[in-house]
Amino acid sequence: MEWTRDATYNEEEGSVRFFLRGRPIVLYAPTAIAETYDMLKVATAPQIRLKLEWVYGYRGRDCRSNLHLLPTGEIVYFVAAAVVLYNVEEQSQRHYLGHTDDVKCLTVHPNKLLVATGQAAGHDRREGRPHVRVWNSVSLHTLAVIGIGEFERSICCLSFSKADGGVLLCAVDEAPDHNISIWDWQRGERGQKITETKCSADTVVAAEFHPMDRQSIVTCGKSHISFWTLDAGGTLYKRMGIFENRDKPKYVTCLAFTQTGDVVSGDSNGNIIVWGRATNTISKFLRGLHEGSVFSVCVMKEGNLVTGGGKDGRLVQLDASLNPTGQETRVPEHLGPVRVIAEGRGSQLLVGTTRNCILIGSLDLGLTPVVCGHTDELWGLAIHPSLPQFLTGGHDQLVTLWDSMSHSVVWSKDVAEPVQSATFSLDGSVLIIGCTTGHWFVMDAETREVYSTHTDGAEPIQVVKFSPDGALLALGSRDNNIYVYQVSEEARKYSRVGRCMGHSSFVTHLDWSTDSQYIQSNSGDYELLYWNAGLCRQVPQSSQLRDVEWASNSCTLTFSSLGIWPEGADGTDVNHCDRSHNGELMATADDFGKVKLYSYPVIQPRSLCHTYGGHSSHVTNVSFLHDDSRLISTGGRDTSVMQWALS
Q: Is 577 within the bounds of a domain?
């Protein structure tokens, strides 16, 4: 949509007219602006900027071997398009933000300084192609960007060579043939591919260079383990592991190497198998150590092994001869089964789970969670009215209250229904939680007691908001209606006033006027409608309300936010916007994983902004904390929550 061509300003009416997906949109300028409004003026970006301060979450549900301890004392892992370096003792985070889409795999160089990370195919055809980035974990400087245009789909496995000091990099992608490629990654800025061949028609879950034998690589996955040799001429040869008459597993799920160079594999039958060094045959077989899959095997410095169960959640210690030592512990069930085990400081273990938690501890003292996250699509976000806290709610049925200063979970509750929206009462004592089923709860924000449950329609409650005087509650539904309730007994009692009917598509956003008389709302087909809230009646002449003052500006389609629509926008691009409490800034969340910051009001079709990456899927929500010191953003399918400092 070429704005300046499409958009027209009618000076008599004081209205801007433009098209979104072929629909004419008419927005009325406030009287004070209308007389001098110049549509061709370019608005400058704000002087204030965002800096990513904290990332909440971890991707354990479907990624492997993505948790390591660095010599800096930081643990390194990823979620969304961000790689997080987290020092648990100092409670500090740094972030590598070179990727443009979901990071899917991570490996640490034998020098423990360099890291390689691989990403999925992204939104942007040019920018978002799958590739590998090699970077310095101290300076966060990128050393090489490898394989743009060479990989199909995502990269699922990465390994630096070890016996030669890490000159080579092995990568496996998620193309139908799961190609395995070997790179001389230091050759130029883009590396040089030495060889590439089909790895397996089946899923590949791990690929590792042998720590002692330079030419040797081991891969495993669905119904296979393969032993590869890279010959002097740069050709890869494969030998399949022979299970003989032992029960061949559906999946070989993980790999490790003992200190004598044998290969250890775990599989979906709960077995641990040792393959003799430089052979493709079984030298030791430990049957049924775990119930269900063994998702991780970690060989410790002193030679013991620790295995992790993907169903039973147990961590079991074995000695070098594969005999259980009797030392074991279990991850608490609500934190999920084990996805990955890595060595921490001293005798500590790092454990990542399939419910996106990271725990630190030991077999004798047990494990403590240090990172917790959502495990499904994330839409609900509510800001506490007076404390530095915020609440998130997801389709994983979890509602979590976070403290932005200590970067920790205050509490988390399973509400047994997928959550779509949430808001605090004016004093912060009561929460309204809107679900995808049309149910909504009234909940005590401290005790988490549910006072009452209500039902409006059978579709998701997209948005919930109290009027500024606290007397009314409006709920916008996917069933095209806005339901209005009278609020009494300190926001604990609700009686329905009526419903606002008139939208021809689902309600996406709503705002209250500062005098609590009116509601403005947007819908899925780009309407902006106005309502007399107490009567639940539409105000058909929208020009009459051009000078109304709004208590918030979360409607993306208003005169004061028209500049947030990019050229060529189709309306679904901008999922959410929020005006800062001081009225000087507007932040937006879009379908391309970007958070943007504008000067408010955003009334010029050409408004410049600052743009920030970190999320990978659509960003579903952005909100300023009560004192405008921070901005919180939620990722949809990437399940992450990001906290940005304003400076």
A: yes
Q: Which two tokens stand for residue 468?
A: 């500024």
Strand order in the sheet with 430-435: 419-424, 430-435, 439-444, 450-455
Q: What is the pLDDT of residue 309?
A: 92
CATH number of the domain that residue 446 is part of? 2.130.10.10
Burial class (CB in 10 A: 0-12, 13-18, 19+), 525: middle
pLDDT value of position 592: 87
Sign of dihedral through CA atoms 310, 313, 315, 316? negative
Q: Judge whether residue 3 has pLDDT over 60.
A: no
Mean per-residue pLDDT over the chain, rounded: 94
Q: For tokens 């098209």, what's the residue?
A: 19
> What's the pLDDT tens digit per position in 169-195?
999 999 888 999 999 999 988 999 999
Q: Which string of b and e fits 581-598 if b means at least 16 CB within 10 Å?
A: eeeebbbbbbbbbbbbbb
Q: What six digits make up the tokens of 433? A: 């939680």
Where does residue 452 rank: exposed (0-12), middle (13-18), buried (19+ CB within 10 A)? exposed
Domain that holds residue 587: 3-50+375-646
- The pLDDT of residue 5 is 46
Burial class for 449, CB neighbours closer than 10 Å (0-12, 13-18, 19+): exposed
403: number of Cβ within 10 Å: 14
Report which residue type is found at 190. R
Reference 204, options 223, 230, 232, 187; nearest CA is 223
Buried b (16+ CB within 10 A) or exposed e, 13-24: ebbbebebeeee
Least-confidence region, from 4-13, 132-141, 333-342, 344-353: 4-13
Please name which of 464, 492, 460, 463 lies closest in space to residue 478, comparing C-alpha atoms: 460
In a domain, 599, yes or no: yes
Q: Is residue 586 part of a domain?
A: yes
pLDDT tens readout for residues 56-95 = 999 988 888 899 999 999 999 999 999 999 999 999 999 9
What one-letter code names the amino acid at 3? W
In a domain, 245, yes or no: no
When pLDDT is averaged across residues 18-39 and rounded to a whole number, the result is 90
Per-residue pLDDT at 2: 37
The span from the CA of 557 to the CA of 524, in Å, is: 11
Q: Which residue has the tokens 């000695």?
A: 319
Which pTM was predicted?
0.94
Total structural domains within the chain: 1
Cα→Cα distances 393→9, 136, 371, 479, 545, Å: 41, 35, 17, 20, 33
